[in-house]
Amino acid sequence: MARTPDALVAATADHGLPERYTERSGVDRAALDEALSVAIDRVDDTLDEFYDRFPSPSSRDLVYDATDNMDGWTASFWTGLCWLAYEVTGKRRFRDAAETQLETFERRLNEGNVDTHDLGFLYTLSAVAGHRLSGNERYRSMALSAADLLADRFLEAPGLIQAWGDHEATEESWERGRMIVDTMMNLPLLFWASEETGDPRYAAIAETHARTTAQHIVRPDGSTYHTFKCDVENGTPIGGDTAQGYDADSCWSRGQAWAIYGYAIAGDYADEGAYARLSATLANYYLSHLEDDSVPRWDFDAPAEQDHRDTSAAAIAACGLDELARQLPLADDRVRGYRNAARTTLGSLAENYSTVGTDSNGLLTDGAYDVANGDYDECCIWGDYFYVEGLVRATEHWSRYW
Fold first, then answer.
1. Cα dihedral angle (119, 125, 131, 137), rounded to 10 degrees?
2. How many domains does the chain have?
3. Most CB contacts within 10 A, which of 38, 241, 303, 389?
């Protein structure tokens, strides 16, 4: 029997908020304002190159190639950057670019790859954001179509959204019945769909998946598996594994960051305080294992000779920590600590990992897409997006797209 959210939180060890984040961050508002201005200028500089196309998931020698959006999971992060730039500056050219890109997202629903849990990433930062900012019903319809496709991936017996592969396949495979921690950030599309339509089915699927993730992907020590497989027929847990972390039992830092942010948002949509408390437990594990400059190694358990940082994980975590601070009760002593941690992270990214002074068309160096395949020490487009979202959160009055 599935445990309640409160029981899941009670079963997870909490490392506590590290003392260094209880003191006021030394990063001032002016530095973050400047970092945001620099980032928006870089987006502006590359807008013509990617006006109706999309940066590759990660760069080569800090330069993104141009791609289409009929496959893969990362195109929406560029569109999300365009929407953020439009909100910050009011410049119509950013909005025009985002709306031009939405034509490709519309085609993808009929012609491209939609057999993935990443529909949440793809259509939240493109169509949901577009509908929130413009009121265009066409974008709402696109997002609801994507939500239907995502909901179709839900497997009743194990109570999860299958991440990859054909969710209707009957033959056994590595993908069948496998969920991944990243999906916590795809659930907002389903929560949004319930709010838009009044149909509780979408939110029910999202909440069930969140509980299943807490039960199987969150470990008793507050770390997370990257992936976990269950029997499709009877829901029996089979075990955890990794696709991009060091090994099955390690803690991949980007996955931990997805979970921090995902549970903070789920707590808001579901009005479930236990999810915010679980996000805090996950955040404390993350913060307790950070390097001195508040940017994590790509995997907290990787050997010393694989000492690669992942600025994309740091940027996601900064947004998640800020969201967590918003979801906890104001009287909670940890609220200030999580805000301090978010601000300190953003300050370190701006000071130590910016592409300023290089020929890059990205924003952050030292992103780690897939270390096992040699894809690290580059810009990652989702890292660039969350970096700017974090800066907007820290300096603007902003309503999230998620």
1. -30
2. 1
3. 389
